TrEMBL record:
The lineage of its organism: Bacteria, Pseudomonadati, Pseudomonadota, Gammaproteobacteria, Cellvibrionales. It comes from Simiduia agarivorans (strain DSM 21679 / JCM 13881 / BCRC 17597 / SA1). CDD domains: AAA. This is Sigma 54 interacting domain-containing protein. InterPro entries: AAA+_ATPase, AAA_lid_NorR, P-loop_NTPase, Sigma_54_int, Sigma_54_int_dom_ATP-bd_1, Sigma_54_int_dom_ATP-bd_2. Keywords: ATP-binding, Nucleotide-binding. GO terms for molecular function: ATP binding.
């Protein structure tokens, strides 16, 4: 396999270390790219003397390997947690040519497979933290390790479960069970299936999701919501991959890979007595924390571009103010909320750029507000006249625009198509 790498020497690293690194790459037969290239891994070269910037690793580069000169220190761990793999270079020993080649080989083939899977599923992951999540997911899937995905709602756990299934390259299907919808009485049947006559409405025998996942992957979404009564029944199934249908007495086998997801920290659910510790230990062999969107701001613009590309065709770029507007928000609902926000923006078909002025605001004032109070109707009945009504509508529009734009007069002005000064005056009137 021909290997290429982009060495990213962190500022402050000694020149002698940089030279040693380049020499080892040459000995390992690895070519050196002069630019970060998405499909080539990045070798982050660092040592204790390097700068301590948290964002030394730029977004958009491929998977990365940290090459650290010297003994690991706190700085090493801070950097290592942003890298997929790492290699320590103990200067008393010969240069680590073979391990270096091996790690770069592993990263290169993972990178190509991950890229293919992202394309196939229409997913975007540019940030170093998401690249790392993908690498761990890929490694776990290829080694047949079960995975627990934890992260806030809307971060993409379900999409990652699909990727995990794709990475496993198995013959069977991805069988999904959303545990939030499980009725306590029917949970056993949904999971294990049932025999005919097992309960009053069981007119026929049927398979459950565990049988459906045979030779494939079982995805238990929101596993924290699994009724407590059914939890002990899953222990053997997860450990031995065996199950018994409700009303049956024969143990059956299903060979599946397991991926579970939860938006709550399951450790807290265990502490609160809502989740069994023995079940937690069986599903948490490899816990992958999916970072919230506000902690990977680098993903916001690529996700937005991806969203517009899927709606308007390729090549829609975002105007500067629109990028700024999108990146300033903190997205408690994560990618799902970003997509909802983007629905407000409607670039013209075939337009090369999406701008804030493409934003569609609700153009008619609702007939009745949630409280049932129709202020326009009341104002008209009270004989207030059009000017007073317009004046109030204008004030409400300014307040809404400022709220939407996190109090930025400039962006709110763009949104309303008025001058920035108009919004500044409105704000000073309010504070005066
Ligand atoms: N990396 C990504 N690239 C493209 N779209 C994404 C990505 N991550 C999430 N999405 C989109 O965001 C939305 C929410 O994703 P998903 O349902 O996977 O989140 P979740 O973490 O499972 O949420 P919940 O905990 O509420 O079930 C979906 O529309 C999904 O397509």
């Amino acid at each position: 396999m021909s290997l290429a790498v982009y060495p990213m020497v962190v500022p402050g690293v000694a020149e002698s270390h940089r030279a040693q690194c380049l020499e080892s790459l040459q000995q390992a037969g690895v070519s050196v790219c002069t630019q970060p290239f998405p499909l080539s891994p990045c070798l982050v070269v660092a040592s204790e003397s390097c700068s301590d910037e948290p964002d030394v690793i730029p977004p958009g580069v491929g998977l990365n390997c940290l090459l650290w000169f010297g003994a690991p220190t706190e700085k090493f761990w801070r950097l290592a947690c942003r890298c997929s793999l790492w290699l320590l270079w103990d200067e008393r020993q010969a240069s680590p040519v073979h391990p270096l080649r091996e790690k770069l080989q592993a990263l290169t083939s993972a990178q190509a497979n991950i890229e293919r899977a992202l394309d196939a599923q229409g997913l975007v992951a540019q940030s170093a933290s998401m690249r790392q999540v993908l690498f761990h997911l890929y490694t776990a899937a290829r080694r047949g390790v079960d995975v627990l995905l934890q992260g806030e709602s809307g971060t993409g756990k379900e999409q990652l479960a699909r990727l995990y299934h794709q990475f496993r390259r198995c013959d069977g299907d991805l069988a999904t069970l959303d545990c939030t919808t499980l009725d306590e009485g029917l949970a056993g049947s949904e999971l294990f299936g049932h025999e005919r006559g097992a309960f009053t409405s069981a007119h026929r025998s049927r398979d459950g999701v565990i049988a459906d996942a045979d030779n494939g992957t079982l995805f238990l979404d929101e596993i924290g919501d699994l009724p407590l009564a059914i939890q002990p029944k899953l222990l053997r199934t997860i450990q031995e991959r065996q199950y018994r249908r409700v009303g049956g007495n024969q143990w059956m086998t299903s060979t599946f890979g397991l991926v579970c997801a939860s938006h709550v920290a399951l450790e807290s659910a265990v502490d609160a007595g809502n989740f069994r510790l023995d079940l937690y230990h069986r599903i948490a062999a490899c816990v992958i924390m999916v970072p919230p969107l506000r902690e990977r701001v680098e993903d916001i613009v690529p996700l937005a571009e991806h969203y517009f590309a899927s709606r308007c065709g390729d090549g829609v770029s975002l105007s500067g103010p629109l990028r700024q507007w999108l990146c300033q928000y903190h997205y408690p609902g994560n990618v799902r909320e970003l997509y909802q926000r983007l629905r407000l923006i409607q670039p013209e078909a075939g337009a090369a750029q999406a701008c804030l002025s493409d934003m569609v605001m609700p153009c008619s004032i609702p007939e009745r507000s949630a409280t049932g109070d129709n202020w326009i109707h009341q104002s008209v009945s009270a004989g207030l006249g059009l000017d007073a009504i317009k004046e109030r509508a204008t004030r409400e529009a300014k307040a809404s625009a400022l709220r939407l734009c996190d109090d930025s007069c400039k962006q709110a002005a763009q949104l309303l198509g008025v001058s920035e000064r108009t919004l500044q005056l409105y704000k000073s009137e309010l504070s005066g």
